[in-house]
Structures are given as structure tokens and as C-alpha cells.
Amino acid sequence: LKMLNDEDVTLALAEYLSLEYTRLDDVDKIDMNLARILPESIAKRFCLVTIGQTDDNVIVAMADPLNVIAIDTITLRIKRQIKVVISSPQQIHQAIERIYHGSDVEEQCLRDLVELEVGSEESQKDLLAEKDISSEEAATKAPVIRFVDLLLSQAVKSRASDIHIEPQEHSMTIRMRIDGVLRDTVPPARRMQAAVVARVKILSEMDIAERRLPQDGRFKIKTSGRDIDVRVSVIPTIYGEKVVMRILDASAVNHDISKLGL
User: Could you tell me the keywords of this UniProt record (predicted)?
Assistant: First the structure.
């Protein structure tokens, strides 16, 4: 007997229900900004992703197009009519990973920037010369400014609630809290680490020279047409300063009771 795989079953179901079958292996077919309108928790719960839109509808790929609760939930969430297409559970799960945690434009740019800086480090014959450059001076250099800008843009697009920059003995980790879970992202090159912290302190109008006491600050950015408020806490640790940035997106909060569907 021939065993049917996920795709065979999905194709048969699409034909039976007279629904369009869509493959999701080409990431260019997915509108990433639109896809992230839905929280990852909802996408995983109902095994679906929003992939595009027409003039009248938002296109949603579902593994179970007969799930009325899922359709009602996302219609209420995005406040538009939806057009359901069908895709295999495996492809939807892979798409969810690419949408919420994949190497999108910002993450790929971060990786490219870090690789460039690491290559520059390795080409330096005298690393002691680098130590003469203060973190404050380095924080005003283009690579560091670019790194912090990309990090913030990636956090907003991923709908992260906060960013944690944590120094280690010989490295640094950067994590974003997405849907309540801290996830690792691209760390800076070694020589950029102190400068990245200094850059955040400059944006927050903190005292750059103060490294022994906790500090709090805030700043605003505009990305993807949205005004974002960033609240910052810096705490000294044994290996350096730990930074926590809280991302507050005013546009993500809807205070209109009439639109809650009650």
C-alpha cells in the first residue's frame, strides 16, 4: 500500500472542499509584516498563518479550514474579512518558524554586519590599539549605530516586549521576549559589545561614565510608520552592564470598546 504524506492528504482535502491549495516553501510569497499581525500563540494554536491580502480580504493559510473557532478568532483579531486557503501542517509549522523567528531582513543584516566586524577584528595585527578607543567614542561609529537600529527594528517587527543585553565572561548574549519566551538573537562582535551598551545609554540620555550604579532612562523611535517608546534599565554586573529595554508600541493597543466585538 502507498502511504500518503501530509501534502497528499492536504491536496485531497483541498479538492474535496473546493479550496485553493497554497505551498508556503517560498518565503517571498508571504507578507511578513501582515503575517505578524497575529501573535505566534494564535498561529500555533490553530495551525495557520496570514500570507497576503487582496482589496477586500486577508488571505489565511490553514491546515484545518473547517475550524470555525479559528476563523472567528482571527476575523475578530484582524477586523477584516478573510479568504481561507489550505496548506499542509508541516509547511505551516515551517512558515511560522520563518515568520516569527527566521532570518528576516533585519536579522540577516545583523549577521552580515557582525561577520564584517569579526573579519575586521581578525585582520587587526595589534588588538591593543582597539583598547585605546573609548566605548563612548565607538558608540558614535556607524557600525554600532547600525547594529542598535537593526536590533530595535527587528524587535518591533517580531512584536518583542523587551530586549535583554547580557554580558558574559568572554561574550555577550542578546535575547528578545516574544510571546512570553526569551529567544536568542544575533550578538555583536566582541569589540562592539561595550559600544552597543554605550549607544543605548546615549539614546537614553544616561551618564556614560557611570558604570557602578543602576540607571534608568527612555527614548522614542519611529519604525515601520509606528511610534515606539523604549524604557531602559542598566544594571552593573560582574562582567559589565546588563541592559533591559522595554518596547512599548502604542499602536498595538486598541482602546476602542466598540471594536472588541462584545
Answer: ATP-binding, Nucleotide-binding
Delineate the domains of the chain, giving CATH numbers in brackets: 6-100 (3.30.300.160), 104-252 (3.30.450.90)
Pairing label, strands 181-185, 58-62: unpaired
Distance CA 240, CA 236 (A): 6
CB-CB neighbours of 65 under 10 Å: 19
Q: Distance between CA atoms of 200 and 26, rounded to whole angstroms? A: 36
Distance CA 234, CA 212 (A): 10
**Per-residue pLDDT for the chain (262 aa), expressed as one digit of tens each?**
467 777 888 899 889 999 999 988 776 678 887 888 888 889 999 999 999 998 889 999 999 999 999 999 999 988 889 999 999 998 898 888 778 765 456 666 777 777 777 666 555 544 444 444 456 676 777 888 989 998 998 888 778 899 999 999 888 999 999 878 888 888 888 888 999 999 999 999 999 999 999 999 999 998 766 789 999 999 999 999 999 999 998 765 555 555 445 5
Please list, residue by residue across 25-37, b when 16 or more beta carbons sit within 10 angstroms of its beta carbon and e when fewer do: eeeeebbbebbbb
Residues 94 and 25 sit within 8 Å (Cβ to Cβ): yes
Amino acid type, 5: N
Cβ contact 222:228 at 8 Å: yes
- Return all residues near 48 (Cβ < 8 A) that are at least 6 apart: 38, 42, 60, 61, 62, 63, 70, 74, 92
Q: How far apart are CA 61 and CA 64, in angstroms?
A: 9
pTM of the model: 0.57
The Cα 203–Cα 127 span in angstroms is 28
